[in-house]
Structures are given as structure tokens and as C-alpha cells.
Amino acid sequence: MRGNLKDNQAKLDCYEKSIKAALKRKRKVIMESKQIAYDMLSELYGLEGQELVDTATIEHTLIGKLTDSGMSYADIEDGKVATVITKDLSRLGRDYLKTGELIEMVFPDYDVRYIAVNDNVDTAKSENELLAFKNIFNDWYARDCSKKIRAVFRAKGQSGKHLCPPVYGYKKSETDKNLWVIDEPAAEVVRKIFKLCIDGYGPVQIARILTEQGIPTPTAYALLQGRDNGRHNAKTYRWGAQTIAHILERYKYCGHTVNFRTKMKSYKVHKIVYNPQEEWQIFENTQEPIITQQTFDLVQELRKHKRRPQRSEVVNPFAGMVYCADCGEKMYLSRRKNERPEQKHMRCSTYAKEQYKCTVHYIRTCVLNEIVLGELNKLLTMVRGNEEEFVKRVMSSSVQRKSSELTKAKKTLKQAEKRIAELDKLFTRLYEYNVLGRLSDERFTMMSAGYEEEQAKLKATVAELTAFVETAEQKSSDVTAFLKVVHKYEHIETLTPEIMHELIDKIIVHEPNKSSGKRVQDIEIHFRFDVAVSTISVETGK
Asked: Across residues 185-191, what is the average pLDDT?
């Protein structure tokens, strides 16, 4: 993947030189064509002795190019612009408010002549009363084009096709342009990034590791493959924390297509905004996954507890998982200088900031490590010794008691939903009989009231049964998922962030009790999916 660093850099330099030369030739051709067009316009309109500043291309409006081209409203205000020429009004702009402001206010105020060749507009010769209407029509045209393009993209996205080029780690299939296939060298880097995150490294640390190893960035890798993504000034081997964070958040690496994550604010405001997650459309298993679903879920769980970057590469397995029992806030690792390993401790973040809001209490990491390690191995032994008994203990009493009735509950639920649908049809029939005079108003009121009461009871039953079924199935699914993780380990020797986040939800540390003359603390260990809670009272000092 990395190859020889000097060879890769030489290739990149060669690609960049070729790209710059091509762009230079392109700019030369454009400027020559602009000059020819300007000379022709000079003959038509007598614009002699004026400097060509800029012209709008067929792909862009002039208003949209003012900033990019170096021309700005400030140039107009400073008197640097004498004449503005476009092919037609739509080339000036399709926002009727902006074009109207320019033509009616800005240009006259600064004695700027405006010419639209195809629309026969020349503000120096005469006024055109239809300009406002033409600008509105141009705006409508832009709106209509935007609507059609959005409709095409929505239809494409709803069909399960990708709406963007392949992300780093994938490439287009040679046989099917709509299919993504794994780009193995890049995919290897993606797996490395996820592995480092699971090992406890944050985006800043991961970026530093990849940079030190000389691994090309996504932009550099694209250039090495002969693909031009337009970012010629990118730092080819310097990874950024933001790039790492984006990679870690991409659900597409699980082999799924995710459409409609973002959208443009409007056809006038080209600002990208993120859609709520419920508006996303996810199509599963559309390409070969680079990482497993379990790995992705674990990384997202780790990312919920973001840590500030540390100079030290030592990973704290308890980061983001230890909470104060009194104030409920997180406890952070103290990083004092000249502190011996056995002195390192976790302390309440609230007390560290505002001492009057909580009490001074802490727990040494070596003590916490010993407690958690012991409880985890005790749990592993219990599960492996009698898995059935463990499942019985984990399942809540209500769900466990009714677990045999789950099939019956589903059947009852189906029958209730069917009866509700039948009652809806009966209501319709009763109403028709009443309107036709075949059923009196009194009889209609009495019968409909009875049916409404029955339907209300059925809806309440449906809600209750649905909640029960979902709870039972979810609990069963959670226990199964937990057992699957437990079976990965026979005996845990060292705590890692991966182990911690796979098996433990949170750890709660109580204030020490010194009534016995010794420092005794209660530690609560809450395992994942609420399968169990261990409470340990341990002597943590004097």
C-alpha cells in the first residue's frame, strides 16, 4: 500500500505538473475565446479602450462568479467596472431579486452600462419595461430545473442506487458502474483506522500514526491511482482528525447504501444541511462490507465518549465509562506530573470545576482495574458454567413469566387488529344505512356507540400486546447479543477499551465511607443491555 515514499511522491509531483499544465492550456484557450468575443462586441457597441475583466461562461451566471473571478461589488463601487456584457439576461443571474437590484439600482448608481446581447438590452440606449418579467421567468426556469433534478435524484436514491462517487475504500465495478467493489489497498487503511479506534485511540492520535507511517491520504491515494478530485493543494501525507472522524462515521463501510443524509437548503442557497436520521434511506447489503456491523456499532459506542487528545499514547480503558454516584457526571483520569502509576486515579469532574457542587472523592485506576477485571472473569465463569440459569436470571420476571405466552400474544394481537379493521367497515356500512333511511338515527347512535367502545378496548389491547411483544423480543435479542460477545473470551487478562465497551455499559463510583476507620467504597458495574448489575464494597485506602 505504502510502497516507496519517494517513488509515490515523485508520481504525485508528476501528476500535479501534468494537471497544472492542462489547466494552464485550458485557461489560455478560454481567455483567447473571451478576447475574440470581446473584440466582436467592441465593434458592435463601440467599447474601445476598456479592459476585459471577466465574462460568464455558459455553465455559470455572472453573479455566481463575481467572487470566484476576482470581480466583486466593491470593484463596481470603486469605479473599476464600466460595462457588463452577457449573452442574455439569464447569464447575469436567475435570482430575480439580485438581478433586479443590479440592473435597477447598483448599475445606474455607479454609471455601469449593462448589455444583454440576445435579449436586446442596452441600458445606455433605452429602458426595457419587460426586464422585470424576464428576470422572473428566468427565476422560474431555475426553480423548475432544480425541481426536476431533485426529482431525478430522489427517484435514483429511492431505487437503492448510490447518489455519490465511491467513498475511500471502494471503487466502481468495471462491469457495472452502479456497483461498488472493494479497493483493497484503501480498504486495508480503513480497517486499520477502525482497529486503532477500538484500541482506544482518538482521531487526532490515529491521524498522527498514519502520517508518521507515510500512508497516503485519500486525496493523495486518488492522485496515485490517476484520479483527479480537484484538490491539488492538499497535503498528500498529512492526515487530519476530521478525515478520520468522517471515515469512522460512514455506515457505508458495513456494505450498505445510505441516501439522503444531506440536502441543499434551496435552489438559491447552496448550503448543505444534514437531514434527521429518520429521513435517511438505508439499503442493506448492496456491496461487500469492509468492516463488520459489530465492529461499526462498537466504534460508534466508543465515539460517544470522546476524549480530549493527549500527548501520551497510553490508552485509558475507563475513558467515558466511570460516573459519580452523587452528581451523575463523568469521572476523568487525573494526569498530574511526576505521579507514580499506583497513584493515578479517576476523580469527579464536577468537584474539579466547582467544589461546592459535589464531594471530593476519587478511585485509583489500579484498584478499579482489579475490581472490574475480577467481576468480568466471574461473569464469564458463570455464563460458561450454566448459560440457561444466567438467561433466566437476566430476563426480567415479568417477561420471563410471560415468555411462554409470547406466541399466544402475537396471535391475539393479529386477531385484535383484524377485528379493528372489520369494525371500520361496519362503521362505514352503518353510516350508509343511516343516510339511506334504512337505519334510524337512534338505532345508529346506539349501535355505533357500542362498536366505538369495543374498538377503543381493542386498540388499548393492541397497544399493550405490541409493547409486550417488542419488550420480550428486544430483551431476548439483547441477551443473545451479550452471550455472543461473552463467548469471544475465555479469560480476560488485560482490560482494553474494546472489552470494556462490549461488556460494560457504565461504572458508578460512590463516595467513600470512613465510619469504620477505613476507606470503603461501593462500586456499581452495569453490564451491557441491563443483563446484570454488580455492586462491590471494597477497601480503597485509609
From this structure: 93
